[in-house]
Design goal:
277 residues, globular, 6-stranded parallel sheet, 4-stranded parallel sheet, binds D-glutamic acid
């Protein structure tokens, strides 16, 4: 039996999901949170569907054992490649970012650009979700494989990052998009650069804002909104806690306590025996 005072679990490959965590603080300040970054296995965006499914199942197994009442995939790649499959496997509400982002974008525009990891772009999850709502909408999905590393290395405002962003956005600007979706949770961290390169008329959609609205609704329906004072956020990573804490500080506004957990040891050795396609 889940309890309303339990935490909401969020996960991503790295610091991208902090954009969702920040929205949680803003829109649902009374909830207690558990954040997991699978930083030892980052990036997810170049992985196969099979690998993503395996990582996601491991994270969900672990999170389900931590007294969480809901899990948010604060990662588009996991949402695109694994959500539909794993949702049926766990007795806990699991939310992904894509549908919320697609719904918000369709309300805004008809010519929609999506920037994302290669895996998300290849899955066409956004195009599918958007055109299911409005088949008249045009959608262009652009993979941006360099962004995640640049963000994780805290290269947010360098000339190099700006040039990379310019190259990625060029084809979308040429198509005269009216709306741009951050199809990877990391990308909001590049907001200043991205917005400065786009025509001012382009509406920018961050699915993080809308997934939190959806989570709030669902918790209310389930009668699971927290009524008590929230616990401090628990941060866990599979990679280096110091590295995560150092870079996260600027977005959190405090230096987080981060614990390393040893997820992935089993899967890494399994994968060595069974290389993925
Ligand atoms: N932030 C994730 C996403 O939204 C994953 C990025 C990565 O590890 O490639 O897709």
């Amino acid at each position: 039996m889940k309890h309303s005072s339990w935490r909401i679990g969020l996960f991503d490959s790295g610091v991208g999901g902090l954009t969702v965590l920040r929205e949680m603080y803003r829109q649902m300040p009374s909830e207690s949170l558990l954040y997991f970054a699978d930083s030892a296995r980052l990036p997810y965006g170049t992985r196969s569907r099979r690998e993503i499914l395996q990582f996601v199942r491991e994270i969900l197994d672990w999170m389900s054992a931590q007294d969480v009442k809901m899990i948010i995939m604060a990662c588009n790649t996991s949402s695109a490649l694994a959500l539909e499959v794993v949702r049926k496997e766990y007795d806990i509400p699991i939310l992904g970012v894509i549908l919320s982002g697609a719904k918000a974008a369709v309300k805004q525009g008809k010519r929609i650009g999506v920037i994302s990891t290669s895996a998300t772009a290849k899955s066409h999850a956004y195009r599918q979700a958007i055109q299911e709502i409005n088949p008249q909408t045009e959608v262009w999905e652009i993979p941006c494989p360099k962004f995640v590393h640049l963000i994780e290395q805290n290269q947010l405002y360098t000339d190099y990052t700006r040039n990379v962003a310019q190259e990625y956005l060029r084809p979308l600007i040429a198509r005269k998009i009216d709306t741009l979706i951050y199809g990877c949770t990391h990308y909001r961290h590049l907001e200043k650069t991205i917005r400065s390169l786009l025509p001012v008329s382009v509406e920018v959609i961050d699915p993080a804002e809308y997934i939190v609205v959806a989570a709030k609704k669902e918790l209310s329906l389930l009668g699971l909104r927290n009524e008590q004072f929230p616990l401090p956020t628990r941060f866990c990573v599979s990679g280096s806690p110091e590295q995560f804490a150092n870079i996260s500080q600027q977005w959190l506004g405090y230096y987080p306590q981060v614990t390393k957990i040893s997820m992935g040891e089993i899967s890494s050795s399994m994968m060595a025996l069974n290389p993925v396609e």
